[in-house]
Specification:
By secondary structure, this protein is an alpha+beta fold. The protein folds into 2 domains: 2-71 and 116-285 and 320-432, Outer membrane efflux proteins (OEP), CATH 1.20.1600.10; 72-115 and 295-319. 67% of the residues lie in helices and 13% in strands. The protein has 9 helices and 8 strands. It has helices at residues 2-28, 35-45, 47-66, 119-185, 191-226, 249-259, 261-282, 326-392, 398-432; strands spanning 32-33, 73-82, 88-91, 94-97, 102-115, 235-236, 287-297, 308-318. Strand 3 (88-91) and strand 4 (94-97) form a beta hairpin.
Length: 439
């Protein structure tokens, strides 16, 4: 029975180490990937980044489209019409027609808005606000993609270190198990001591397998963000040792009001709402339209079938009288939307300042955790060394040794988690302050 337990534990360790071999092999042949390079690849190759770029191009064309009312609208047409009967008069038994049965007409017509009381100007202003909004949304998309890349990049670094910590714990537990097996064979240890060590070893191996699975999933995510092939090997170069972040909440909050994309977008939406209201107000005013046409057609007496050149020109005043309350309803809608946009701007400004202060608090908390967990690691490491010495001299039980080694692994993981959180919170501060995180 004890041989089967020993063999099972050994197989479990072998499986856990073999699961990590393909990953390490892939990394060995990969070109080192820095965070800056990963950010560049994400901004250039990610489909969402390209989608945002195309939306900006569409907004640019919308501005050009809105300006078209300032230019003549030129069109051409040609047609044929058959009429029967036609007007005619009889003189001494001879019929004289005033129009032909077969009518041919070809014209080029130019029509232009001469004056519309600023309607076109308001439309152009709305289009420009839409283009500015598209640019801001592009910045937001790139920033969010960059943050996702940063988070995934450091998650991979964290999980790689976590796997190493678990490997160290598994190695230590395997050594304990081998030692315990010898003592059990010699009758110096109980069956309970042997099973306890085997259970601890199996638990540590399971945690290592979980970390490896999470690591592979994060690598898949990073490949997708950066536009890499799904089978491309990854070898990241980086650390959790970054320079201290700015923690002046007042300064960062002021920066957020000037540079935060969400605030800038809310302000552009307010401008667009104001332009829309202005346009709705001007819809009650008349329009002055000029037109001119040149062409050829038949139907002129005395030779009704002969095609002759003709020219027409005119000015038209269009005055709205009644449209079923459409314009008044549009004006009330635009007024309400402008009030809504004002509240959106106010909410965006308050939210940005609140996020700055929250992110600064989180950063401060994670920095303090680094110091406390570093102390815990030192204490746990010393306790594990003493436990090993006491155990070798028969002054400590198996559970004492296992608890000490588990506490060391837990402390190392806690310190690693605190360093990871510090990096993430530092980037959260940058985001809250309006940094687009290009590097």
């Amino acid at each position: 029975m004890k041989k089967r337990n020993t063999i099972a534990a050994a197989l479990l360790i072998a499986v856990s180490f073999s699961a990590n071999k393909p990953l390490l092999a892939a990394e060995a042949g990969a070109t080192p990937l820095t965070l800056d390079e990963a950010l560049r690849m994400t901004r250039e190759h990610n489909p969402k980044a390209r989608q945002a770029t195309e939306e900006v191009k569409a907004a640019d064309e919308k501005v050009t489209e809105s300006r078209s009312a300032w230019f003549p609208q030129i069109s051409g047409k040609a047609g044929y019409h058959y009429l029967d009967p036609v007007s005619e008069i009889s003189f001494g038994g001879t019929a004289m027609k005033f129009m032909p049965n077969d009518n041919y007409d070809a014209h080029i017509t130019a029509e232009m808005m001469l004056f519309d009381f600023g309607r076109t100007a308001s439309t152009v202003d709305m289009a420009k606000a839409g283009r500015n909004s598209a640019l801001i949304r592009q910045d937001m998309t790139l920033r969010d993609l960059s943050l996702a890349t940063v988070q995934t990049f450091y998650s991979i670094l964290f999980l790689q270190e976590a796997v190493k910590v678990q490997e160290k714990e598994v190695t230590a537990l395997q050594t304990n198990l081998n030692h315990m097996q010898k003592r059990y064979d010699q009758g110096a240890a109980t069956r309970f001591d042997l099973l306890t060590t085997q259970v601890r070893l199996a638990s540590a191996a399971n945690r290592k397998i979980d970390y490896e699975n999470k690591l592979r999933n994060q690598e898949i995510t990073l490949r997708r963000l950066c536009g890499l092939d799904e089978n491309a090997p990854l070898s990241l170069t980086g650390s959790f040792d970054i320079s201290a972040a700015d923690m002046d909440a007042d300064k960062l909050a002021a920066s957020a009001l000037d540079h935060r994309p969400e605030v800038m977008l809310a302000r552009e939406n307010l401008k667009a709402a104001a332009y829309k209201k202005n346009l709705a107000t001007r819809e009650f005013l008349p329009k002055l339209v000029g037109s001119a046409s040149w062409g050829t057609q038949n139907g002129y007496v005395p030779d009704l079938g002969k095609m002759r050149t003709n020219v027409a020109a005119g000015i038209e005043l269009q005055v709205p009288i009644f449209d079923g309350f459409r314009k008044s309803a549009a004006l009330r809608e635009a007024t309400a939307m402008k009030r809504s946009a004002e509240q959106q701007r106010l909410d965006a400004e308050q939210m940005s300042q609140a996020e700055v202060r929250q992110s600064v608090n989180d950063l401060q908390n994670s920095r303090e955790k680094i110091e406390t967990t570093r102390l815990q690691v030192s204490q746990a490491d010393l306790a594990a060394k003493h436990a090993r010495i006491r155990y070798d001299n028969g002054l400590a039980t198996t559970l004492d040794l296992l608890d000490a080694e588990a506490a060391l692994a837990e402390a190392e993981l806690a310190n690693l988690q605190a360093r990871y959180e510090y990096v993430m919170n530092a980037y959260s501060v940058r985001r809250a302050a309006g940094d687009l995180i290009e590097r």
